[in-house]
Each structure stands twice: as C-alpha cells, then as structure tokens.
C-alpha cells in the first residue's frame, strides 16, 4: 500500500469515528449529492465542544456584535464581523539539523458591510470597542463612496439564518505534540534518506495550522468553527557534480484537514529510502523524446491539473470579469452552463465542501452559507459554477454554493475554490490496469512546475517522477518531462479512469487569488487517469 | 496608524527587557493600508486594514526559535518573548547559527525619512474613489471594460537585537494597475503605475495606456507559428523574467552545485556571462526610488553592483555561508536597478524589422534552475512588429526561455522605469529588444 493510500485511509478513518458526516468515505467514490444543502452541521464531538467552549474568541464576541450594530447604525443594509485567529507552526530540517522553528499567531476582527448597494471592509487587530466601532464606520463610509461609482447595487441571494459550531475532525491536536517529538520525526526521516549513498541534501518539514473563526451577521447568523490542517514534506536531492546535474524528489504525501495522526500515518522515515532512491534514479534517467503521447497522470500529479484547468475556470467571479486584472477571466461564460462539452463522457467533476480530509471542507462559509456538494461537470458537460451570495444573485440562482472565504481577519472575504474532484470510473480499474492498457506512454506522478494562461486554455505541467511505458509495462525512468495541452482537448482525450480504490486527495495551502493577494487551502481528489497530450523535453539536452 | 520610531523602539526595548536569554532579536512591523478594487467599470470591494506584527527570535546555546503575533503592548510583547524562549529551549542546536548583530551604520538619516511621502500617508476612501473614477472614465469613454486595483499604504519596520542594534525605516507606496477589455472579450490591455509618492501616481495615464492596448488588440489576431522571434519586452515583461535571474543570485546554491551560477569547485563570479549592455545594481538611497536600507537581520544594505557590463561581480551570501567560506557577507538586496538607454518603447519598436511586442508575462514558472529555464505566457497586449511598426495583434503565446540566455541576446535597451513588483521591493528596469526569444505554443486566452 502506498504512503498516500495509507495516510488517506487514516484521515478518512476519522469519518467512521463519527466526527464528520458519518457514512461518507472520501476515497470510496461518489456519494449521493447533498442537495439541498444542510443548514446546520452535526454536533462536534466532545473534544471539539471543549475547544469551542474554551475559546478566547468567546470573550470578544460582544465586540463582533458591537461592530455589526455600529455598521447598521451607520446605515449598512447588511454587515458581518469575523473574529479570526490563526496559529501556524513551521518546523524545517535540513540534513542533520533544524533550520527553522517558528510559530506565527494572528488575531483580529474584520467587518464587511453593504451600504447603498456597495461593499466596504475594514479590519483591525486592536480589540476594543472603540477600534471595532471605528472599523465598522470606516467600512460604511467607504461603501458609500464606492456606491457613487456603481451603476447597479450589489444584491445578495437569500440564505438561512444559522447558529452553530463545528470543529474539523482531529485525533491528535498537532499543537499538543511536543516540539521534540516533531523534530525527532523529521530528523529520523532526513537520516534515513541521507543513508542512501549519492543523496547530498534532504529537506524535511512540517507545517501545522489552526484556524478559528467566529462569524456574526446582521441577519442573525452566528457560526463558530475551528480547523486543523497539517502538511508534512520530505525532499531528497542527489547531485552529479561531474556532469553538473542535480535532481530532487518530493514525498507525495498530501496536506490534509486533519491532526498529527496524518503526519504519523505518512511514515516519512519508512518512505525516505524510496524517496532517496527515486532522486538518484532521476539523476540517471533518460531524457524524454518529445511528441504527442498518452500519459497516465497519477493522483499526486492530476490534482493540480484539475485545480488549474477546472477549479479556476468554474469560478463565476472570474467568468464575470471580477478577476480580469490579475488572476484572469475564464473560457467558460454564464451562457455556457449546461451546454458546453469540455470533456469526454466519463469526466465527472464535483465540488465538495463536505469531503472528509478536504482542505476547503467547512461547515459554513464566511457568510454563514452551509457547505455543500454539487456537480461542476457532468458526463463531460459543464453544468455548475462556484458561487457566493452576490454571485448567485448575478446569474439568477436562488442560493449561494457557499464559496466565500477570507484568508484571515485582515482580508476581505471573496469567492474561493471548494474541493473540486474528479470522480473515479465505474470499471474498478487499478493503476496497473491503466499501465497494461497503454502501448506507448508515460506515467507521471507528483507535482512539478505548472503554468496556465489567464483564461485557462493552454497549460504546461511538469511532475516529480516519470516512468516510460512500452507495451503495457513500465520500462525506465525519464527526465525533463513536461506536458502541454488545451483544457478542453485535454479533458476530451480522457479515455480511462482508475476505480474507487485508486482515488486519492492532493492539495495545497497556497491557492492564490485576488488583489491584494490571498491564500486558500484546497484539496482535489481523483483516480489515476489517461490523457493524450504534447510531451516536451525541458532539459538542456545534455 | 504606523508606529513611530519612539513607539517601535519602546516595544523593542520591552521585549529585550522581558528576555531571560542572552540572544534575542525583535522585529516590529506596522502598516496602514487601503485598497479599492474595480471590475466591470464599477468598484467591487474596498478595504482599510491596520496591522501590527511583532516577531521575536530567541536563541539558547545556538538553538533558535521565532514566535510572531499581533501583540500591540508591552505585556503582549513579553508573552511573545516568553513563548519564543520556551520554544528555543526545545529546539535543537542549529550548526548554521550566527549571533545577532551589534550596532550598525545605515545610509539614511532617521530625521529625514526619504521613502515616506506625507501625501501618500494621508490617502483615504475619497482619494481612492477619485483616482479610480479617472480610470473608469477613460474606460467608459473608450467603450471598454476596466478592472483593476488601487492600493496605498504606509508602513514602518523596526529591528533590534540584544547586541545593541536598532534599525527603523518608514515607507509609503501607492500603486494602480488596470486591465481594459473590449466588451466582446476579443481585446485586452494592461498598464500599471507605482511610486512611494502620491503625486507621481499617474492613474489616468495608466488607464489610457491600458485602453490603447485593448483598442489595438480588438478583434484578436492571427496565431504566429511557434519558434524563435525578435521581441520587444516592455519593462514589466523584463521584470517578470529578471525575477528568476535575481532569485538565482545566491552564492550558496551556486557553490553547492544547484544553480546556473555553479562552476566546478565554486561559482561564476568574475565571468562575463551576459551581453555587455547588461548592468545591474542596487541602491537603497536612490533619490527617485528609495527603499529600505537594512536587511532582515539588520545588516546595512550597501550600494552594490551585481552585474557590470555583462560580468557577474557578486552573489548574495548569508552571514553563515560567508563565515564558512571565509568571504564577506552580501545581503540580499531590496532594490534593483538595471541600466538602460533613453529610447521609449515606440522607439525600440522602430528599430525592429520583424518581431513581437510583449506587454507582460503571466504564470511564469521555473522549469530547470541549472539553465534558469522558465515557462509562462504573454498577456494583455501582444502585437506583431513589421517594418518598425506595430502591424496588429497576435494571439498570446507560451514561451519556454531562459532569462539568463536572454540577457546574452540583448539587442537594445530603452529608458528604465519602476515596475509593479510582486514583493515590496523597488524594481527599475528598461524595456528591452531581445533576439531569438522562444515561443513554444499558442494560447487562445485573451
């Protein structure tokens, strides 16, 4: 069993512990869509309830209420206040020593208002009644100024008033594990990789994050949530000084909405020799011959291609031009919903904020809309958008899909990506089945470089490891491989999918969007799948 | 409100006073920022944010830990110190540890903060909407659709150590970027303007440049065959590519065999690597574009020449690496000035018989650090040049090219200008004519 498989089972095992929507296994394939969305999440388990009850944010809840009231008094037709606290711990090991130990905390309040039909926002880390009232008034004042330049007012789709609390499932609070234990784990993994002769450098890291927020809206909603996310990492680098070449190989473990149990299950030390061997193999791999080829993309590679080509193109704000100045627009437009074929009939892509382990999983978004699961691409046809309350109203949808998120108290909430996942095929194929069915191709795993245009047509992706496939067999490792394709051609060429047993999550803490830029954490699940692409050689030919 | 020198110094002092370990360093950053986004010819979101961030690094027996938080008073600072010290007690020894620096001499005069403009510090919601209104007017008059961002901020950063160092810097910045698109989505143009001075922000000018490009690209264009082209890169596109060369200017990566600048047994310092027209320097005290005069660890940032007429003169060297190699430390710069000429972009275009004009580049990613091979795409204003004239729009293209190789194939340089950089540093570069630039595939994106 691969590391990612084991760790994923560990994470999804949390679901059966009853902490998160019992009965749904993220890796076990498509479950019935949850529509209409639930308006409240299940009660948190005892540990979660205790964390919520001891929260520092409760002390400051009256300030959040005061901010909302001040905004209303100043003339806001809608207001929300978010108290947000972040804790991030980073630990990095290089070879035989610790290179970085850091703990970052951020805490403050952000007030978002709608006044005269325009948005305003102000944030402060000063938590006293004068500061939050001033922030609320400033937000209303700037909304009113903006309104003078607006041809039509912002309209919000209806939502239910909700009151609830939720803690993401966690077996072991990563902040309760001692620094010594974490350091030992990383140093042991680095030692195990360095023990492989020819490996010159090893970097190991562990990022742990705890996000807590309490949202109060002028419509009467109140939601209090805590999220735990962890990201273990291990990279081995081999250097061939004679030929002036070096090669790095990353562990393919995914970051997860989970506790320290995910780090333990990733078994960095056990996997380290393999990672090290792979780095050496990459160093001595044969250069790829470019051309049009079939590629089998492992979930550790395909998740990012889903993120870039489908995740971003189905963001409705992009399609409406709201991100035209930086992130870009989309090849999808509102008139294409339900009509445009963007993939072969086997392509099913689902947005899901209820997926166990998913980094973008949440009980409610930043305007108290419940997390949901819905279709983006059904049988290859584009059918769904990612929306927020103002976006839903723009295209006449009755309800928001719950995609509003702000990276911290100081950032204005705006539309962000949910977990977007490719559903496994019905045939129950294994990765080996896909390889055996391929005459001339490449198996690509892991995340390499990635680049895609601002409307999400033309992309070029690398990977971590490349196996040549000849006549249904893995023959030898290749290097300097990148694949280039057009989004619609790529998904239309998808002719084989792994089954439910091959489904894995990949993800990132660093999904960037917006101006000023904000970061979002998001996961993408998928089976391995086969496509036809242009393969490039990105090496210098030596 | 940003913290004044005495306010920041008092927080630094309270951290040092609260410390029980001998080695402590403290950074106090504060900012007040405002922004207004717009799209579809109307404001979308706006914001005002005030922040204070304090970061404490504590060291015990060469083992360090850093704790940061949004504390704002002496008690909050003392708590950060306590936590950093507790974490340092658990952290293992870092063999690469260097002790904090003692007092340093900086190039600036604390009584005359040249990087902070009082007018920029006073910008408010009304100023933001007034500036954005200028952009929206240009777009509406041209029957175009504008999106963009106006941002302004004042900030201060203070850094102090238990060895007696204290550094303080105040700055302001105002920037506006805008993309104008034709209503049918067939044409797009981008422009940006940035300065530390409010008076230097030319919102209407940027809007007109973006609008002109959108208009010129209306209807889209033909697809060029992938291949090698002579290109005129506007300053923004040059900066987009140069970033990768700058990121590679590390002595350690070079000495360890991981970089373009690696050589058997060392690095490429002293080698003529680029076209003789290429010179690159940094200067925190540049009168037009001042920047912070100290590095993150308090080292003074000197006036420095990195590349002189194509010859590599220096690589950034951390204090530890310098100590290990018996060299002088060279801090990573926060300002970059590339030498150029006096020609405008239009004049550069006149000198090109056949080629492509590139406004900016997008989603640029390193493919191979040994060659500094990078991929990315052209965007928001890509035009064919024929007989020294822009002869029409062309489809955007993906390039696979080495910015290092590009610096070897420079044909001409124009007048340098400050560009909107991804980080908060100052980047001033010229537009550039380059021979044999490699476009790999065509993109349908507009």
Biggest interface in this structure? A-B, 84 and 87 residues
Strand order of the largest sheet of chain B: 3-2-1-4-5-6
Structural class of chain B: alpha+beta
Query: How far apart lie the N and C ends of chain A?
Result: 36 Å
Task: Give the overall pLDDT of chain B as a whole number.
Answer: 95
Structure commentary:
The complex is a heterodimer of chains A (542) and B (446). With 542 residues, chain A is an alpha+beta fold. Chain A has twelve helices and 25 strands. In chain A, the strands form five sheets. In chain A, strands 8, 9, 16, 17, 18, 19, 20, 21, 22 and 25 form a ten-stranded mixed sheet that branches. In chain A, strands 1, 2, 3, 4, 5, 6 and 7 form a seven-stranded mixed sheet that branches. In chain A, strands 12-11-10-15 form a four-stranded antiparallel sheet. Chain B folds into two domains: 212 residues, PmbA/TldD fold (2-Layer Sandwich); 227 residues, no CATH class. Chain B contains ten helices and 21 strands. A six-stranded antiparallel sheet of chain B has the order 3-2-1-4-5-6. In chain B, strand 8 and strand 9 form a beta hairpin. In chain B, helix 1 crosses helix 2 and helix 4 packs parallel to helix 5.
Notable traits:
heterodimer; A: seven-stranded mixed beta sheet; about 25% helix; globular; disordered N terminus; B: about 450 residues; PmbA/TldD fold; 2 domains; six-stranded mixed beta sheet; 10 helices; 21 strands
Quick recap of the structure?
The complex is a heterodimer of chains A (542) and B (446). Chain A has helices at residues 3-16, 46-53, 57-73, 129-147, 179-194, 260-266, 268-283, 299-311, 316-319, 389-394, 431-436, 487-492; strands at residues 78-94, 97-115, 118-124, 163-167, 199-217, 222-240, 245-250, 286-287, 291-297, 349-352, 373-378, 381-382, 404-405, 414-415, 419-422, 440-445, 450-452, 458-461, 465-470, 473-479, 481-486, 496-497, 504-513, 518-526, 529-537. With 542 residues, chain A is an alpha+beta fold.
């Amino acid at each position: 069993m691969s590391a990612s498989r084991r760790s994923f089972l560990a994470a999804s095992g949390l679901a059966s512990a009853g902490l998160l929507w019992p009965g749904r296994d993220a890796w076990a394939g498509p479950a019935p869509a949850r529509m209409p969305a639930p308006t409240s999440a299940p009660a948190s388990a005892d540990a979660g309830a205790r964390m919520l009850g001891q929260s520092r944010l409760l002390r400051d809840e009256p300030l959040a209420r005061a901010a909302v009231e001040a905004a209303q008094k100043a003339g806001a037709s809608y207001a929300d206040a978010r108290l947000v606290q972040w804790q991030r711990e980073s630990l990095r090991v290089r070879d035989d020593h610790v290179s970085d130990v850091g703990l970052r905390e951020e805490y403050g309040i952000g007030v978002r208002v709608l006044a005269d039909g325009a948005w305003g926002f102000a944030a402060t880390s000063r938590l006293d009644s004068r500061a939050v009232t001033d922030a609320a008034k400033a937000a209303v004042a700037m909304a009113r100024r903006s309104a003078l330049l607006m041809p039509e007012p912002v309209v919000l789709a209806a939502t239910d008033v909700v009151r609830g609390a939720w803690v993401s499932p966690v077996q072991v609070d990563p902040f309760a594990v001692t620094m010594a234990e974490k350091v030992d784990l990383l140093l042991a993994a680095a030692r195990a990789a360095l023990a492989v002769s020819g490996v010159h450098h090893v970097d190991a890291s562990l990022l742990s994050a705890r996000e807590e927020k309490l949202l109060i809206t002028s419509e009467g909603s109140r939601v209090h949530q805590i999220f735990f996310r962890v990201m273990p990492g291990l990279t081995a680098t081999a250097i061939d000084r004679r030929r002036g070449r070096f090669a790095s190989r990353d562990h393919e473990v995914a970051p997860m909405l989970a506790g320290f149990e995910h780090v333990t299950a990733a078994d960095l030390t056990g996997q380290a020799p393999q990672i090290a061997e792979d780095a050496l193999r990459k160093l001595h791999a044969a250069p790829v011959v470019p051309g049009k080829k079939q590629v089998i993309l492992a979930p550790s590679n395909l998740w990012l291609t889903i993120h870039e080509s489908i995740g971003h193109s189905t963001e409705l704000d992009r399609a409406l031009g709201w991100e035209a100045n930086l992130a870009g627009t989309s090849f999808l437009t509102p008139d294409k919903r339900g009509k445009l074929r963007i993939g072969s009939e086997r392509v099913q892509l689902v947005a899901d904020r209820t997926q166990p382990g998913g980094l973008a999983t949440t009980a409610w978004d930043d305007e108290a809309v419940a997390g949901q699961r819905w279709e983006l691409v059904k049988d290859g046809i584009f059918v769904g958008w990612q929306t927020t309350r103002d976006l839903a109203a723009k295209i006449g949808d009755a309800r928001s899909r719950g995609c509003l998120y702000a990276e911290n108290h100081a950032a204005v909430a705006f539309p962000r990506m949910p977990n977007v996942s490719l559903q496994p095929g019905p045939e129950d194929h294994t990765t080996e089945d896909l390889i055996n069915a391929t005459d001339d191709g490449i198996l690509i795993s892991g995340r390499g470089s990635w680049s895609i245009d601002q409307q999400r047509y033309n992309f070029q992706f690398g990977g971590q490891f490349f196996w040549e496939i000849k006549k249904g067999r893995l023959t030898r490792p290749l290097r300097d491989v990148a694949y280039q394709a057009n989004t619609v051609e790529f998904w239309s060429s998808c002719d084989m999918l792994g089954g439910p047993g091959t489904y894995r999550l990949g993800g990132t803490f660093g999904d960037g969007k917006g101006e000023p830029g904000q970061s979002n954490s998001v996961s993408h699940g998928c089976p391995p799948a086969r496509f036809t692409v242009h393969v490039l050689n990105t090496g210098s030919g030596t | 409100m940003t913290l004044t020198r005495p306010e920041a110094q008092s927080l630094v002092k309270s951290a040092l006073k609260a410390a029980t370990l001998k080695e402590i360093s403290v950074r106090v950053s504060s900012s007040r920022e405002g922004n207004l986004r717009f799209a579809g010819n109307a404001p979308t979101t706006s914001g005002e944010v005030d922040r204070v961030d304090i970061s404490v690094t504590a060291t015990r027996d060469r083992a360090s830990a850093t704790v940061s938080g949004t504390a704002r008073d002496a008690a909050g600072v003392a708590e950060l110190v306590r936590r950093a010290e507790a974490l340092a007690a658990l952290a293992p020894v870092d063999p690469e540890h260097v002790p904090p620096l003692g007092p340093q001499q900086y190039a600036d005069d604390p009584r005359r903060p040249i990087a902070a403009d009082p007018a920029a510090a006073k910008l408010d919601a009304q100023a933001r909407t007034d500036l954005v209104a200028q952009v929206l007017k240009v777009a509406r008059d041209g029957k175009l659709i504008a999106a963009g961002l106006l941002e302004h901020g004042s900030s201060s950063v203070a850094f102090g150590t238990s060895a007696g160092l204290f550094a303080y810097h105040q700055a302001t910045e105002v920037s506006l970027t805008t993309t104008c698109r034709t209503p049918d989505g067939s044409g797009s143009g981008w422009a940006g303007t940035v300065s530390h001075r409010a008076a230097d922000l030319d919102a209407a000018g940027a809007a007109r440049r973006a609008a002109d490009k959108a208009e010129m690209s209306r209807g889209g264009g033909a697809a060029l065959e992938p291949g090698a082209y002579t290109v005129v890169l506007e300053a923004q596109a040059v900066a987009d590519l140069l970033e990768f060369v700058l990121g590679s200017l590390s002595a350690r990566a070079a000495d360890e065999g991981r970089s373009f600048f690696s050589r058997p047994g060392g690095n490429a310092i002293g080698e003529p690597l680029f076209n003789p027209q290429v010179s690159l320097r940094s200067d925190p005290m540049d009168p037009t574009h001042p920047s912070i005069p100290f590095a993150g660890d308090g080292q003074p940032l000197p006036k420095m020449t990195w590349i002189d007429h194509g010859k590599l003169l220096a690589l950034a060297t951390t204090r530890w690496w310098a100590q290990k190699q018996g060299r002088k430390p060279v801090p990573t710069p926060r300002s970059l000035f590339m030498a150029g000429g006096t020609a405008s972009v239009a004049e550069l275009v006149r000198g090109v018989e056949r080629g492509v004009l590139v406004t900016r580049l997008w989603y640029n990613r390193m493919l191979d650090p040994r060659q500094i091979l990078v991929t990315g795409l052209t965007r928001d204003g890509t035009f064919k040049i024929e007989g020294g004239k822009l002869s029409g729009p062309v489809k955007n293209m993906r390039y696979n090219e080495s910015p290092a190789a590009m610096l070897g194939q420079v044909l001409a340089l124009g007048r340098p200008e400050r560009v909107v950089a991804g980080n908060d540093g100052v980047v001033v570069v010229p537009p550039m004519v380059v021979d044999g630039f490699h476009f790999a595939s065509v993109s349908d994106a507009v």
